[in-house]
């Protein structure tokens, strides 16, 4: 019974994130792929996303701190972050990345910095919420494993 209420809590939490525009249907797709043979699939994808996103943000930040911005390097970091965000369902991060790409095309360093700051904020929001999803998932998995052993 407790596992059912935790699963419902997770479902409600994810639905709330979709309603807030933090996650989109791509997260649901990831969740559907997870099964008994790969119970940690979502956890693994979230961990990869976190690593890749933080690397891309660092690369973008480093690029913008240079006196002469290497916009090609910045574009590569933004594409990496946008792709990773889209695949996990982080639609607000992905949208901000599209806006950053526009500022890059205009070679507007000040606007790039402003949008990158917004990306960082959106990423932090997404990261905190994904961490909560992982926590609930771990609790559910622990309960399921306990029930199978009983």
UniProtKB/TrEMBL annotation:
Task: Give one Pfam family.
Answer: Hpt
* Gene3D superfamilies, per database record: HPT domain (1.20.120.160)
Q: Which GO terms describe its cellular component?
A: cytoplasm; cytosol; nucleus
Q: Where in the cell is it found?
A: Cytoplasm, Cytosol; Nucleus
Q: Which residues carry this modification: Phosphohistidine?
A: 79
Annotated keywords: Acetylation, Cytokinin signaling pathway, Cytoplasm, Nucleus, Phosphoprotein, Two-component regulatory system
Q: Does the keyword Acetylation apply?
A: yes
Chief subcellular location: cytoplasm
Q: Which GO terms are recorded in the biological process aspect for this UniProt protein? A: cytokinin-activated signaling pathway; phosphorelay signal transduction system
Which PROSITE patterns does the UniProt entry name for this protein? HPT
Q: Give the domain section of the comments.
A: Histidine-containing phosphotransfer domain (HPt) contains an active histidine that mediates the phosphotransfer.
Role this protein plays: Functions as a two-component phosphorelay mediators between cytokinin sensor histidine kinases and response regulators (B-type ARRs). Plays an important role in propagating cytokinin signal transduction.
Report what the protein is called: Histidine-containing phosphotransfer protein
């Amino acid at each position: 019974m407790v596992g059912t209420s935790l699963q419902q809590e997770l479902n409600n939490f994810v639905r709330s994130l979709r309603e807030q525009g933090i996650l989109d249907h791509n997260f649901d797709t990831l969740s559907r792929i997870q099964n008994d043979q790969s119970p940690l699939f979502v956890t693994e994808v979230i961990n990869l996303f976190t690593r890749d996103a933080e690397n891309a943000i660092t690369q973008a930040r480093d690029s913008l701190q240079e006196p002469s911005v290497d916009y090609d390097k910045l574009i590569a970091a933004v594409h990496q972050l946008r792709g990773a965000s889209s695949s996990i369902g982080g639609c607000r991060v992905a949208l901000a990345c599209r806006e950053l790409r526009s500022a890059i095309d205009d070679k507007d360093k000040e606007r790039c910095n402003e949008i990158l700051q917004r990306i960082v904020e959106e990423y932090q929001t997404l990261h905190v919420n994904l961490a909560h999803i992982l926590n609930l998932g771990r609790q559910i998995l622990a309960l399921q494993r306990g029930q199978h052993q009983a």
